[in-house]
UniProtKB/TrEMBL annotation:
The keyword Ligase does not apply. This is L-rhamnose catabolism isomerase. It comes from Halioxenophilus aromaticivorans. NCBIfam families: L_rham_iso_rhiz (TIGR02629). InterPro entries: L-rhamnose_isomerase, L_rhamnose_iso, Xyl_isomerase-like_sf.
Length: 430
């Protein structure tokens, strides 16, 4: 496997940090032992954790007002994969990349697959894009894509989703994520039922093109770009459509796509219960679809979501196999640093959730001991599991201190030399 950061630099940095890490790890191990938890078992589970990186997250996102490009931004999918491989080399829990078409322009998918293989990377769900018009496109998505009142426009959107499946097959992906921006901006502009009927008709065509081992991930979002109504606006409409389509269709939860204060962990629980949880787009948010770094604002919420996920794992719930992906937009940070940090934050929530004393929690739930139930969750959340995460990373060949080692490598400055700024390019994020 080709690595882009000098392995001896990683080894050197790790060596100097190892004595302190070992001390902290042993101390945490002794503490956990008092609660009957074997730290080694937890570290092994942490080391198996994976979350996919979005190809579009490697460039500076920008807003609808401005985009301020960073140094050495990737100019194409090959350079995006290089950055993803650096992320994975440091954190060793991001082996897969979720591509977005046609933002990721590819002329030879076999070549792309080979390029990723060499970097030790694979592909997670492929994302279609019918929320923008592309140059030369015959029919406009101004008034919707899969739900457009014009049949030719709907056909064009269906065909794009089907070509994404074809491309994904070559890349070794097994899922298509469909998010549409379709909706309306004025009361009365669209007939709610007819619009959803058109969605289902189109989505069925896409669904029917799925290979046997593929899934279709339906992603909901409350608003934006449509500001009065959105067709797939919440998990209710989402799961109704997934049920209507069939077993291969499941609901994807993007953390930023809900009304403020919505109990997302409960939505997750419901979807698990009915075997309809596709997976996640992790990010954090204060106001709306902010796409901030995962766990940067609401680490407790993220932990509570993982509490549901680990509970499902613990109870061996049938059909439970969610896909974990990041979906972020970076405006003021180096995207590589944000993505490394975020992967670690998601992994941190997972590890903390593993440490919940589940039998005690079930007991407190059954006896209606609210304060002790809450304290049981808090006890796990309040533990500092950083030594477990660092040890899992180093055992997988990663860096004890990902950001410090990455900065020391000078990768970004070198990318700046190799990739002169176009002043534009990047993710093309909306
Ligand atoms: C929509 C969304 C969806 C898109 C991505 C770029 O807001 O979350 O997942 O594909 O952003
Ligand atoms: Mn998303
Ligand atoms: Mn979003």
């Amino acid at each position: 496997m080709k690595t882009l950061i000098n392995e001896s630099l990683v080894a050197e940095q790790n060596q100097s940090l190892m004595p302190a890490l070992q001390e902290d790890y042993d101390h945490l191990g002794a503490k956990l032992q008092r609660s009957g938890i074997d730290i080694e078992a937890v570290t092994q589970q942490a080391a198996k954790f994976q979350v996919a990186v979005p190809s579009w997250g490697t460039g500076t996102g920008g807003t609808r007002f401005a985009r301020f490009p960073g140094i050495g931004e990737p100019r194409n999918i090959f350079e995006k994969l290089e950055d993803c491989s650096v992320i994975n080399q440091m954190v060793r829990c991001t082996e897969k990349v979720s591509p977005h078409f046609p933002w990721d322009k590819v002329s030879d998918f076999t070549e792309l697959k080979g390029f990723a293989d060499d970097l030790g990377l694979g592909f997670d769900a492929v994302n279609s894009n019918t929320f923008q018009d592309q140059p030369g496109q015959e029919h406009s998505y101004k008034y919707g894509s899969l739900t457009n009142t014009c049949p030719q426009t709907r056909e064009q959107a269906v065909a794009h989703n089907i070509e994404c499946i074809e491309w994904g097959k070559t890349l070794g992906s097994t899922a298509l994520t469909v998010w549409i921006g379709d909706g309306s901006n004025f009361a009365g502009q669209s007939h709610f039922q007819r619009q959803l009927e058109r969605y289902l008709d189109s989505a069925k065509e896409v669904y029917n093109a799925l290979p046997d081992d593929w899934s279709m991930f339906i992603e909901h979002k409350m608003f934006e770009p449509a500001f009065y109504s959105t067709v797939i606006q919440d998990w209710g409409t989402n799961v109704l459509c997934a049920m209507e389509l069939g077993e291969k269709a499941k609901s994807l939860v993007d953390l930023g796509h809900h009304a403020p204060n919505v109990n997302i962990e409960m939505i997750v629980s419901r979807l698990i219960q009915f075997q309809k949880l596709a997976g996640f787009h992790f990010n954090d948010s204060k106001y709306g679809d902010d796409d901030l770094d995962s766990g940067s604002l609401h680490p407790f919420q993220q932990f509570l979501i993982f509490n549901e996920l680990v509970d499902a794992e613990h109870r061996n719930q049938p059909g439970f196999n969610p896909a974990y992906m990041l979906d972020q937009s970076h405006n003021v940070t180096d995207p590589i640093e944000s993505l490394m940090n975020s992967a670690e934050e998601v992994q941190r929530s997972y590890v903390k959730a593993l440490l919940v004393d589940r039998d005690a929690l079930y007991g407190f739930q059954d006896s209606n001991d609210a304060i002790m139930a809450a304290n049981t969750l808090k006890a796990a959340f309040n533990l500092d599991v950083a030594p477990i995460l660092a040890m899992a990373r180093v055992r997988n060949g990663g860096a004890i201190a990902p950001i410090a080692t990455y900065r020391e490598s000078g990768y970004r400055a070198a990318a700046g030399e190799k990739r002169p700024s176009s002043g534009h390019s990047g993710s093309g994020i909306v």
